[in-house]
Amino acid sequence: MKNKVLFIILLLHGTLLSAQQVTLTPEQIKALTPEWKGERSADGRPHVPDKLLERLKHIRLEEAWGILRNKGYMNQFEGDWMVLHTDSAMTGRVVTAQYLPLRPDVDKLVKDKGKAEGRIGAPNSWPIDVLKKGDVYIADSYGKVIDGTLIGDNLGNAIYTKSARGVIFYGSVRDIEGLEEIKGFNAWIKGYDPSYIQQMMLGGINIPIRIGRATVLPGDAVLAKKGGVVFIPAHLLEEVVLNAEFIALRDAFGHQRLREGKYTPGQIDTQWTGEIKKDFLKWLDANPDKLPMSRQELDSFMKDRTW
Questions:
Q1: Beta 135-140 vs 90-101: how paired, if at all?
Q2: From which residue to which does any coiled coil extend (predicted)?
């Protein structure tokens, strides 16, 4: 354990700024996300299943947030966003980028290393080049709005073409009317400004970053809605989805029975009796269309749940 901690400290504080690389290697990302045991992308990031990401869209922010807090993950939510299209939810696999106030010597090191690695164009386009279908580009640009616009509509089109998703920037964008015209693209940002990006530099790609009050790792799953954004560690995604879906089923059953006057609020809001549990199971049998998961998944989940 001591050696692993030392490795991560050296990794985060020394590797990128010494310009050994622009992005973490697959081995370093694996070392950073050891609790994920499933499939990984070629770059080492956890590759959570598309089916879970689709189901995640229907999870309420409060439910995902509450489940993570109960698991000890207290810093995975950020609110107070300007959202391009508030009527849609976005989920995906996280690609991170960190931006810093410009320091010429470090900026030169990063650009020289990027050139040696065959990267093309300005550094703010490099994170876009690594995107795959289902990825969401997450950037920490330290809340800079004026002269902090990471993308306009040209890069926005490139992002959507590669990922079929959008962006979450702790910073700003320009060409917002053009971005709104990209069908399917969405953005969670801290502001809009017509200025160009100036006096900023790329600090690294696919490294741990801070987004407001949240810590974000490459390969996290993200749930973005009009109320805010929740970043879910990949190894907890299935647990979050199943728990939240079960809570939604309980709520749907409870609300129906309250409207019918069968139970009192006190009965529904406290530990259920055996009679209510049996009624709930019968309700599930009578309403298979309400199940977002398979009945086999649900039965397996309920075996280990204390209700």
A1: parallel
A2: none
* Rounded mean pLDDT for each run of 10 residues along the chain, 307 residues in total: 46 49 95 98 98 97 96 98 97 98 97 95 96 98 98 98 98 98 98 98 98 98 98 97 95 97 96 95 95 92 81
Give the pLDDT of residue 304. 80
Q: Is 153 annotated as a binding residue?
A: yes
Rounded to whole angstroms, the Cα distance separating 68 from 87 reads 25
List, in order of start, the domains of the chain with CATH numbers: 2-233 (3.50.30.40), 238-303 (no CATH)
Tokens of 35: 């609790």
For the CA atoms of 160, 200, 95, 223, what is the dihedral angle to 10 degrees? -80
154 is in an annotated binding site: yes
- The pTM (predicted TM-score) of the whole model is 0.90
Neighbours of 67 (CB within 10 A): 21
Cross-strand partners of 187: 167
Q: What is the pLDDT of residue 20?
A: 59
Write out the two tokens for 201.
Answer: 């530099």
251 annotated among ligand-binding-site residues? no
pLDDT at residue 18, rounded to an integer: 47
Please, which residues have CB within 8 angstroms of residue 247's CB and are 6 or more apart in sequence?
Answer: 63
Q: Are 221 and 119 in contact (CB under 8 A)?
A: no
CA distances from 163 to 67, 127, 275 (A): 28, 12, 48
> b/e map of 5-23 (b: 16 or more CB within 10 Å)?
eeeeeebbeebbeebebbb
Can you tell me the distance from the alpha carbon of 195 to that of 189, in angstroms, rounded to the nearest whole number?
A: 15
Residue 150's SS3 state is coil
Contact (Cβ atoms closer than 8 angstroms) between residue 272 and residue 281? no
The reply to whether 134 sits in an annotated binding site is: no
* 149, 172 contact by CB (below 8 A): yes
Instruction: State whether the Cα torsion 226-235-134-142 is positive or negative.
Output: positive
Structure-token match 């508030």, residue found: 86
